[in-house]
Fold this sequence. Notes:
Chains A, B: This is TetR family transcriptional regulator. Two copies of one chain form a homodimer. Chain A is mainly alpha-helical. Chain A has nine helices and no strands. Chain A folds into two domains: 15-63, Arc Repressor Mutant, subunit A, CATH 1.10.10.60; 65-222, Tetracycline Repressor, domain 2 (Orthogonal Bundle), CATH 1.10.357. The radius of gyration of chain A is 20 Å and the shape is elongated. At the A-B interface, helix 7 and helix 8 of A face helix 7 and helix 8 of B.
Amino acid sequence: MDTVASTPSGPPAPRLRADAARNRAQILAAARAAFRESGTAVPLDEIARRAGVNIATLYRRFPDRDALITQVVVDGFSLVLDTARVAAQTAQTDPLAAVQSFLQGMIDNRELLSLPLIGGPMTNDPHARDLQQHIAAALEEILAAGRSAEVLRPDITAVDLIATAALICRPLPHLPPEQAATLATRHLCVFLDGLRPEHTRALPSSPTHEEITAHLFTEETT
Amino acid sequence: MDTVASTPSGPPAPRLRADAARNRAQILAAARAAFRESGTAVPLDEIARRAGVNIATLYRRFPDRDALITQVVVDGFSLVLDTARVAAQTAQTDPLAAVQSFLQGMIDNRELLSLPLIGGPMTNDPHARDLQQHIAAALEEILAAGRSAEVLRPDITAVDLIATAALICRPLPHLPPEQAATLATRHLCVFLDGLRPEHTRALPSSPTHEEITAHLFTEETT
């Protein structure tokens, strides 16, 4: 009975109690899985059922569908940003290893991601937009280190790494997850070898990060 | 009124008349689009409506959902095989260009493909299985030419090319198709540079084609 936890007349707790935090994580995991399988129109009581909480608990954490969608997307971008920043820490010593660390992290965490470029929901949340800008900046930092050490081809961009992450982190359907991950990792190894500056042919020109992101957020409705 | 074409008492026509062939192509195109958007459980009268034919016409061409699903998958594998065989014709003169031709063809024809590894339906049709074997053989022919000319890394397999085709031919959601195609093509260029034999690091070991295809067909129910 999670309603026992409510003390409407008392002061707000300094932080979510452990079971409330657990409920919240369960709801978000259930929403990610449900959005992936059935799209964002999936009924909220179906999400509550999958999460093992009652619908009142879901509404207490997320007042409406948009709040739930936004949190799922923000969590996804936060995980991508964490992965990019961890990778960027090694960029000065081994930029190619940093690129590999970021992209392999995307393959390894694919089950936790629900983002527009991999078929997840869209949002217009400013925090999500900020996170996306920070991701591009962290990747650009890695690439700049690689260019200046002349171990990465100069024509690769943060947009390329974002597109590559999106292409390789969607699981190949029907295959067992470990086979799909192995094939994605082999593909990634060849791609990484293609990032070296020797013997590379010019890439076709790329859309900019701004041009890409313009399509990944819903329009303001105000 | 497509029923005007029926002459039940006459002999069967030597081939589908032009409008019947057109109806058939419209039904298959509508089925591909509907399967992609809503899965294979989409009602057949919804497919007939999208195709602009009446449901009786659909049932005359495809007696049940399985027949329609099978033809969509067979058409997809046939297009992949055609692309692989055209590419294989240039394998003796330029194996790397042949690989590029195959993979770029997959990107260019993505709208016409509905196959298990890109989220399309599964089938257990023997013709579809045969086509898949022929695709692997055509790709292996290209790779063998590249290995023997020492212009391709020796550890790349037909399975890698199939997985790569599946990874790069799924459109990046929400982006305009031309942006998504450009990003996929840039990614492909880097991958192709990584196929050269110089300076390559060993790939992790791969599942075999048999191991992969075991997951891509439905089980016999007999």
